[in-house]
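Review the following:
>
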Amino acid sequence: MKVEACNKSFNDKKVLDLPAFELDEGCITAVVGANGSGKSTLARILAGLERPDERSWKRPTDNVGYMPQKSFAFRMTTRKNIALNGDDPQRMERLVDALGLEPLLDHRAKKLSGGETARMALARILMGDFDLLILDEPSASMDMEATLAAEQLLRDYVEHTGAIIVLITHSIQQARRVADKVILLDKGLLVEHTGIHDLIEHPQDERTVRFLQFFGV
């Protein structure tokens, strides 16, 4: 799936300046970088919530699922929230079990804690079938057990649907665990786009080396 080159500026300050790049089907691509590197802006552009500066720019597909960095709940039960993207009972049961949501199904979703809301929001988005699924820091408010369960669910989703997942994460360790490929952004520029193991073992740019050293990798 080809993503066209795009630029994005806010108040005359350029925050993204990206060349065209490819996203492979059946692959999880982690987007990493320091705060302010443009990760969430790229996610919002791919999701169709931001327009790049180029008027002719087109999304690579219209069948896109998006989980924003701040998870949200609709004013209904947890069960009904999860079912908004699909009504497959077996899929719901699998997601609910994996994320420990069974005791919360009949609770008012607006009353859930931050971590509970994140788990519910992930289950909700994974109920749908998307060509491109964009997740912005989906496990940031989850504990270790829920994070590992979420990562396994992402691998399962890709395996069963052949979808493309773009995972925005601040954690190179998470990228290492779950991603096939990684995009490193620095100040809105694409520094590297390669396999996760190649990035870690054979970085091609000094900015990559500094990024990995900062996280002790």
Summary: The chain has one domain: 2-70+130-214. The longest strand covers residues 189-195. The beta strands are 2-3, 6-10, 13-18, 21-22, 27-32, 64-67, 132-136, 164-168, 181-186, 189-195. The CA atoms of residues 26 and 160 lie 9 Å apart.
